[in-house]
Structure formats: C-alpha cells, structure tokens
Amino acid sequence: MARVVVGLDVSPQSREALRIATHEARWRSATLEAVHVFQVGEVEDIDPLAGAAAMSAPTAAGGAPAGSATREAFQRTTQQIDEARQEAKIRLQRIVGEAGDALNGVSVEYTVITDQHPAEALVKLSENADLLVVGSRGLGGFKGLLLGSVSLQCVLYATVPVLVVRPRLHGSPVQ
C-alpha cells in the first residue's frame, strides 16, 4: 500500500509539512505515517545511561553487591522514560489532530521513535514509502538560505523522494 511519511515536531514548518503531506497522501491514496522522534534528553532529570551502568555493575560502592536500591532506581528511570514516550505520542496525536478536517479520508498511523537522530529515524522509516515530507527550520549559518540539518540529511540519504517544506516568505501562502 502507498505510504507518505511526515516528520513532525512543534515548529510552524512541521505543521506546514503535515498540511502538504496530507494533500500528498490523499492524492496518492496513501496512508499518512506521522512520525515524532523522541529524545530521552527531553525528559528532565533522567540519565538512563547512569541507570543502565549501575544495573550492569557487579558491585556497588565499597565492593558490596549491587542491591535492590539500584534496581529500583533503574526501574523508576525506565518507568519515567515510558511515561515520557507516552507523552510524546499524545503530543504527536495532538499535532496531527490540529489539522482537523484536512485529514478527512486520510488514514493516519502514528510512530514515536526513541533515541535516534531524527534524520536517521526518518530515512530508515521512509525506506519503503512513496514520499518523505519534512519541514526545514533553516537555522544554519546563512539563515533562510540553507536547509536545516535534519532536512538536509534526509535529502542526502533517503532512498525515496523527499519534499522539504521551507518557511513561508513574508507571509505568502504556500499552495
């Protein structure tokens, strides 16, 4: 079945990418796969590597066996990450839901990816898609002239066509 993958975050370009991806999915009679890449660092005060390192250490400080306190800390960290992942999915559904009636007749799938660079995740997810749509923040040294790093990486490495949605210039509508 035809598939259009769109990378989403909270930026205005992302919302415009969603609008265009929705049109593309409808035109292609494709499923729209809305993707949000969740970084563990977005969760306050969580260091999962510290928890994992503590769990893999055979002994605690002073040479005593790693005890239940270490396991409990790791479980709390894992639970916090799971909760943050769920919050990221809710955020993604909210962003897509803002499209309202524009989604009528378009089948939408939601994908939340954890602990990958956004470009890497989008390129991999789009391998069997018909189109990858991303927004461009263009925050490079020549603001307004260059693609953002995620969109540039997608253009360079994706094996499918990539549509990059640039910011609107001077309030001009994108058709």
Judging by the overall fold, what is the CATH architecture? 3-Layer(aba) Sandwich
What fold name goes in the CATH topology slot?
Rossmann fold
Q: Determine the fraction of residues in helical runs and give it as a percent range.
A: 40-55%
Could you give me the name of the CATH homologous superfamily? HUPs
Number of strands: 5
Q: Mean pLDDT, rounded to whole units?
A: 78
Question: Which residue ranges are poorly predicted, with pLDDT under 50 across at least 5 consecutive positions?
Answer: 42-65, 140-145
For the biggest β-sheet, the strand order reads 3-2-1-4-5
Q: Main beta sheet: strand number and arrangement?
A: 5 strands, parallel
Number of helices: 5
Q: Estimate nothing, just give the exact number of structural domains.
A: 1
User: Could you say which structural class the secondary elements and strand pairing correspond to?
Assistant: alpha/beta
CATH hierarchy, class: Alpha Beta
- Global geometry: globular
Order of helices and strands: EHEHHEHEHE
Strand content: 15-25%
Give the termini distance in whole angstroms.
27 Å
